[in-house]
Amino acid sequence: MEARPVQHTRIRTGTPGDGVPAHFRRVVSFTPRGGRLNDVQRRAWEAHAPAWYLDVDGVGTTLDPVALFGRDAPLVVEIGSGMGESTAAMAKARPEANILAIEVYRPGVAQTFHHLARAGVDNVRVLRADAVQVLTELVRPGSLAEIWLFFPDPWPKTRHIKRRLVSAEFAELAASRLRRGGLLRMATDWEPYALQMLAVLGGVKSLRNVHPGWAPRPAFRPRTRFERRGLSAGREINDLEFVRR
């Protein structure tokens, strides 16, 4: 995850009819961020946004992958695609999948278009929105082949831990959107957050750890800028892979 968006929370009450437990605390994690585009990003936006860019208002009430991608293929959601270099590489390595990349930083969205065009891939759509809102309101329960959350903001300060995206509520939500056999993949270079992820996902009854502890790095995932930075600082990279029962 290459952008560091501002976080806030909002709680909605009531009983949702979308497969999420009634006690679920609706956390809205991100506020869309603007930002001025450089020349490369501006050209990429002008050339590719009509085909690859989505916003919440344009999606409708429920995500229709066939309409968005023009084909019926396994749907993968990547949360926090950042500047998109790794997104493009993963899309090229996974041509069989439709990849919905969710990002809030406008220059990151535009830069993603640039990387997608350079990689020559067309199986990615970039949605500028809050990922929790997308999963809650737009994604049908049991419809996703995979969810990727690679290097989310670790919020390392103790007073900020509550801002971390991976909570028990988020894990339940993510699990509810996966189809049976679907995979929830995460990675972080911040050990306390890795341990929190492991504990949280291990507490979801509908999920099972594919490995006895940490997972190997998926072959399709390149080493990201944040991963290289973590390795240079002497931090270990921890991957997780959980399957929907």
Write up this protein.
There is one protein chain. The chain is α/β, with parallel strands linked by helices and 245 residues long. The chain is built from nine helices and eight strands. It has helices at 39-52, 56-59, 65-69, 85-93, 106-119, 131-138, 168-177, 191-202, 225-232; strands at residues 53-55, 75-79, 98-102, 124-128, 144-150, 178-188, 207-209, 238-244. An eight-stranded mixed sheet has the order 1-4-3-2-5-6-8-7, with helices on both faces. Helix 4 links the parallel strand 2 and strand 3 (98-102). Helix 1 crosses helix 5 (106-119) and helix 4 (85-93) packs parallel to helix 5 (106-119). It is globular, with a radius of gyration of 17 Å. Mean pLDDT is 89; it is low at 1-29.
For the largest sheet, list the strands in their spatial order.
Answer: 1-4-3-2-5-6-8-7
The residue ranges in which pLDDT falls below 50 over 5 or more consecutive positions are 1-29
**CA-based shape:** globular
Helix fraction bin: 25-40%
Please compute the radius of gyration using only Cα atoms: 17 Å
What's the total number of strands? 8
Strand content: 15-25%
Give the number of helices: 9
* Terminal CA distance: 27 Å
Helix-strand pattern: HEHHEHEHEHEHEHEHE
Structural class: alpha/beta
Largest sheet features: 8 strands, mixed
Average the pLDDT over all residues and give the rounded result: 89
Summary of the model, kept short:
The chain has 245 residues and is of the alpha/beta class.
Keywords:
9 helices; 19% strand; 8 strands; alpha/beta; 245 residues
What does the secondary structure layout of this molecule look like, with pairings?
Elements: H1 39-52, E1 53-55, H2 56-59, H3 65-69, E2 75-79, H4 85-93, E3 98-102, H5 106-119, E4 124-128, H6 131-138, E5 144-150, H7 168-177, E6 178-188, H8 191-202, E7 207-209, H9 225-232, E8 238-244
Parallel strand pairs: 1-4, 2-3, 2-5, 3-4, 5-6
Antiparallel strand pairs: 6-8, 7-8
Helix pairs in contact: 1-5, 4-5
